[in-house]
């Protein structure tokens, strides 16, 4: 029943998120997504929402994963289209996820997970700032904020989950870059967005079940 409800929400929200993504990417308030983009984003959202409820069931923490899923779909699409990760998507996602985890702690007593989540978010953000200072052309502050969001969400499950998720994200990015280079779709100096690979790594680590609610 929960998975069915998640799929219904995706069918409703998917087209709306696709429209938001193309408008944020283009800066055109009247822009409309193609039917193919709507279909792909709706399908991805459906998978993420179904995975969220399958992973946690019906509890406040699920709302954090669901909101993060919607934000991930929009952020990934915008980054692919315009190499930007809009604050108007990232900031609300951080606020909603933190609030949902707080409610989960109040209702179910998951205080250790909440405190760890906040600590990991701060550490992830700090590491991202360091990376941006070392390589400002390769790692922008949109990526830094995304890393903070991923730290908040994955950190709720554990430090190891975050580290594995980031590793899988970097590995995904490297493999995609090699494929693009081999097919001459990009050059050695082409800018490759970090957002989609990092988001993919986060999804993969949760899908693989490398989680701990302690």
From TrEMBL:
<dbReference type="InterPro" id="IPR000045">
    <property type="entry name" value="Prepilin_IV_endopep_pep"/>
</dbReference>
<dbReference type="GO" id="GO:0005886">
    <property type="term" value="C:plasma membrane"/>
</dbReference>
<keyword id="KW-0808">Transferase</keyword>
<dbReference type="InterPro" id="IPR050882">
    <property type="entry name" value="Prepilin_peptidase/N-MTase"/>
</dbReference>
<keyword id="KW-0472">Membrane</keyword>
<feature type="transmembrane region" description="Helical">
    <location>
        <begin position="65"/>
        <end position="83"/>
    </location>
</feature>
<keyword id="KW-0489">Methyltransferase</keyword>
<keyword id="KW-1133">Transmembrane helix</keyword>
<feature type="transmembrane region" description="Helical">
    <location>
        <begin position="118"/>
        <end position="136"/>
    </location>
</feature>
<comment type="similarity">
    <text>Belongs to the peptidase A24 family.</text>
</comment>
<feature type="transmembrane region" description="Helical">
    <location>
        <begin position="89"/>
        <end position="111"/>
    </location>
</feature>
<dbReference type="GO" id="GO:0008168">
    <property type="term" value="F:methyltransferase activity"/>
</dbReference>
<feature type="transmembrane region" description="Helical">
    <location>
        <begin position="194"/>
        <end position="213"/>
    </location>
</feature>
<feature type="transmembrane region" description="Helical">
    <location>
        <begin position="156"/>
        <end position="182"/>
    </location>
</feature>
<dbReference type="GO" id="GO:0006465">
    <property type="term" value="P:signal peptide processing"/>
</dbReference>
<feature type="transmembrane region" description="Helical">
    <location>
        <begin position="34"/>
        <end position="58"/>
    </location>
</feature>
<dbReference type="GO" id="GO:0032259">
    <property type="term" value="P:methylation"/>
</dbReference>
<dbReference type="Pfam" id="PF01478">
    <property type="entry name" value="Peptidase_A24"/>
</dbReference>
<dbReference type="GO" id="GO:0004190">
    <property type="term" value="F:aspartic-type endopeptidase activity"/>
</dbReference>
<protein>
    <submittedName>
        <fullName>Leader peptidase (Prepilin peptidase) / N-methyltransferase</fullName>
    </submittedName>
</protein>
<feature type="domain" description="Prepilin type IV endopeptidase peptidase">
    <location>
        <begin position="71"/>
        <end position="177"/>
    </location>
</feature>
<keyword id="KW-0812">Transmembrane</keyword>
């Amino acid at each position: 029943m929960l998975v069915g409800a998640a799929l219904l929400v995706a069918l409703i929200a998917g087209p709306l998120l696709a429209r938001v993504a193309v408008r944020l990417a283009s800066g055109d308030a009247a822009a409309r997504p193609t039917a193919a983009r709507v279909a792909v984003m709706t399908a991805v959202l459906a998978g993420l929402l179904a995975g969220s409820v399958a992973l946690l069931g019906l509890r406040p923490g699920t709302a954090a994963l669901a909101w993060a899923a919607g934000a991930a779909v929009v952020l990934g699409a915008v980054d692919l289209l315009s190499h930007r990760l809009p604050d108007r998507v990232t900031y609300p996602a951080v606020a909603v996820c933190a609030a949902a985890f707080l409610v989960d702690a109040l209702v179910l007593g998951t205080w250790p997970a909440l405190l760890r989540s906040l600590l990991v978010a701060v550490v992830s953000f700090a590491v991202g700032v360091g990376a941006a200072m070392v390589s400002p052309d390769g790692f922008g502050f949109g990526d830094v904020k995304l890393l903070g969001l991923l730290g908040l969400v994955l950190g709720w499950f554990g430090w190891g989950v975050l580290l594995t998720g980031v590793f899988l994200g970097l590995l995904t990015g490297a493999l995609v870059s090699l494929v693009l280079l081999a097919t001459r779709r990009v050059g050695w100096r082409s800018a490759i967005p970090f957002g989609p690979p990092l988001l993919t790594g986060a999804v993969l680590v949760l899908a693989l079940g490398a989680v701990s609610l302690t």
